Amino acid sequence: MGYQQYGISPQLVERIKLKMKNPAVKERIKKLIDGVTKSDLQDKAKVRRLVKSSAVILNENFSPAQEEQFVAFVLAQKIDPNNTFHLIKLWGMFR
Asked: According to DSSP H, which parts of 1-95 are helical?
């Protein structure tokens, strides 16, 4: 799994996936990322802000090291939210 190469634990991913099944939480995350562009996802400061905001919504306390791991992972993926192939690739990584 790609995220494990960045030091992100499978247990944390499973916990977040479980929380994302809650419709209210899912909607808040959708609102947070609505309008995010490819350039936003390549800007370290914006990605860090998204990670921190997501942590609040998910009621998670990420350590500074975990935040850096998430930021590094997102930047490395070069995600284009308008490219269906990129989204399918991410979905496959976390299903």
From this structure: 10-20, 23-33, 44-58, 64-77, 84-94
